């Protein structure tokens, strides 16, 4: 999490520039809804409704102007855990921090990630988000090591340079904030994964990745001329580029970037595993990070007092850097306390990822209810982050929620961060 906060802090000059500019511009038991047995004891299913046969409550979900309204209405009626049937699947929705952590952290081995087969083919079947169990834990350890404060400390000047180049390219132009943030996030992701030595491959990596991205949500028809076919060709080329980089890296020191972590000694991955996970991390990092940064621009523009406080915080550091002639350092980012609170509150209010899918690999008991094997389980992040019991006036953008002097344990445990 510290690495992600650093990553966002280093982009604040871009965010401030945007904000100032913007401100100026002014199945079976599932379908029957019955209960089941767990450990020889009859358990009820969670409360809720399953809707019409086959269709379930999908029409109600999509007729809502906002899916989060549908989920919030269900939560208010049935409580923090409830059943429904959407998108052809019986589901259990969980909307408390404790339940989300049960599914995603403490009992994660009981729930597997679920993605369409076409997504696995496109990104690579051995990527971290398609895994569970020991291999998933191993990958998490390698990724966490590469993005630990110790590993990224030396990358701060290079990331600052990327941010400054981005700012320079905007001079006297009207820009699309989200697209520019996506470009920035991709550049930093490539640096963090492959290091500065591999920058000769960056343009080809970018082009292949952008082609892959365009086909990600296309119909999975692998015929010449289709977006899916073009994406699969780009994925093959990405794999070849990564294989070439791996081969070159073996001839020299490993480095502290993600690739170095994947190749490190006893814990090293195979070349195919490295390629799948490097491409997967790029995909995971780009849009979510860009979305958070874009929402920061909006929230800063909408809240001039907060914008002023963040600007003053960075102006003080900038003056010191100008006098010393030194680039931004890790120690400087630790002083960006107001910036850190703005990032946390942006992540809470925007809740970029509204929910995620898991599937129960066996019958699971939770708080006296049965979650049947094969059912989908959806932790509802946005509903948790907007629960007034945890965050008073949840729609209000208020970074002071995260001030050390007033922060509550409830705030910390209710702001979910799943790395």
UniProtKB/TrEMBL annotation:
Signal peptide: 1-17
Keyword Membrane: yes
Highest taxon listed in the record's lineage: Eukaryota
InterPro entries in alphabetical order: Cyt_P450 (IPR001128), Cyt_P450_E_grp-I (IPR002401), Cyt_P450_sf (IPR036396)
PANTHER family: ABSCISIC ACID 8'-HYDROXYLASE 1, CYTOCHROME P450 26
Annotated organism of origin: Aegilops tauschii subsp. strangulata
Name under which the protein is recorded: Abscisic acid 8'-hydroxylase 1
Alphabetical keyword list: Iron, Membrane, Metal-binding, Signal, Transmembrane, Transmembrane helix
MF-aspect GO terms: heme binding; iron ion binding; oxidoreductase activity, acting on paired donors, with incorporation or reduction of molecular oxygen, NAD(P)H as one donor, and incorporation of one atom of oxygen
UniProt record, GO biological process: abscisic acid metabolic process; sterol metabolic process
Pathway per the UniProt entry: Hormone biosynthesis; Plant hormone biosynthesis
Keyword ATP-binding: no
């Amino acid at each position: 999490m510290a690495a992600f906060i650093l990553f966002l802090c280093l982009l604040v000059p871009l965010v401030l520039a945007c904000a100032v500019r913007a401100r100026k511009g002014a199945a079976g038991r599932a379908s029957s809804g019955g209960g089941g047995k767990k450990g020889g004891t009859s358990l009820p299913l969670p409360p809720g409704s399953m809707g019409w046969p086959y269709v379930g409550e999908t029409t109600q979900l999509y007729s809502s102007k906002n899916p989060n309204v549908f989920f919030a209405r269900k939560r208010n009626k049935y409580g923090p855990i409830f059943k429904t049937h959407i998108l052809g699947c019986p589901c259990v929705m969980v909307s408390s921090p404790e339940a989300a952590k049960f599914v995603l952290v403490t009992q994660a081995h009981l729930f597997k990630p679920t993605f369409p087969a076409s997504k696995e083919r496109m990104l690579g079947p051995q990527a971290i988000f398609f895994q569970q169990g020991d291999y998933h834990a191993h990958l998490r350890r390698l990724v966490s090591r590469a993005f630990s404060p110790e590993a990224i400390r030396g990358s701060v000047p290079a990331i600052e340079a990327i941010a400054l180049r981005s700012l320079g390219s905007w001079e006297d132009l009207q820009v699309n904030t989200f697209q520019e943030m996506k470009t920035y996030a991709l550049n930093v992701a490539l640096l963090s994964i492959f290091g500065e030595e591999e920058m000769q491959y960056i343009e080809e990596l970018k082009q292949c990745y952008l082609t892959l991205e365009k086909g990600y949500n296309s119909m999975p028809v692998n015929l010449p001329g289709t977006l899916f076919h073009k994406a699969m060709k780009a994925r093959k080329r990405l794999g070849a580029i990564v294989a070439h980089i791996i081969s070159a890296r073996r001839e020299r020191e490993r480095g502290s970037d993600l690739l170095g972590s994947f190749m490190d000694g006893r814990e090293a991955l195979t070349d195919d595993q490295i390629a799948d996970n490097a491409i997967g991390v790029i995909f995971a990092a780009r849009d979510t990070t860009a979305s958070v940064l874009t929402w920061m621009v909006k929230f800063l523009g909408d809240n001039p007092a907060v914008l002023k406080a963040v600007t003053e915080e960075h102006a003080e550091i900038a003056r010191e850097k100008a006098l010393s002639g030194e680039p931004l350092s890790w120690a400087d980012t630790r002083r960006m306390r107001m910036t850190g609170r703005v990032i946390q509150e942006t992540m809470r209010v925007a809740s970029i990822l509204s929910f995620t899918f898991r599937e129960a690999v066996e019958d699971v008991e939770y708080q006296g209810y049965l979650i049947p094997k094969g059912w989908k389980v959806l932790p509802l992040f946005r509903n948790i982050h907007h629960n007034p019991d945890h965050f008073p006036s949840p729609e209000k953008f208020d970074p002071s929620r995260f001030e050390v002097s007033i922060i509550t344990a409830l705030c910390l445990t209710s702001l979910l961060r799943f790395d």
